[in-house]
C-alpha cells in the first residue's frame, strides 16, 4: 500500500478538480490529522508566501499571516529549508523558529511542511493541535505527500 492510498478520498477528490477549493482541502487535511488550526500559503512571484486558506486562526492575527517572507516563522523556515518544521509545544518554544505572535494562536503541537514538486517550492501547509504533540514520521510523510499533491495543482 502506497502512502498516497492512505490520504483521504475527500482530499484527493478535491485535488482532482481543475480549481480546487483550498479551504475544503485544508479542512479535510485538518480532520485527517485531528487538528484544529491550519494554513495554506502559496508562493508568489516575489518569493513571498501568501495566505490562501486558513482555519482556526484568530481574526486579529490574519494580517500578520497574510504575507510571510521566506525564512520567517515556521512556514517561512519550512519553505526556506524545503523540509518540514515541527514543534511539540509552540507555547513553550524558545528556539526563535515560531514568531512571537504565533503564541497568540493558542496552539501547541504544530507542523509546517513545504509544498514541493520536483524540488520546486509552491508554498507551505501548516497544521496544529491545541495540545502538546509530537507528529510521527508517518504523519510528517503523509503531510508532505499531501503537499506534493497540492503542488501539482499549482504548476503553471
Automatic annotation (TrEMBL):
InterPro entries given in the database record: GAF, GAF-like_dom_sf
Family annotation (Gene3D superfamilies): 3.30.450.40
Stretches assigned to the GAF domain: 24-151
Pfam families, A to Z: GAF_2
Protein name: GAF domain-containing protein
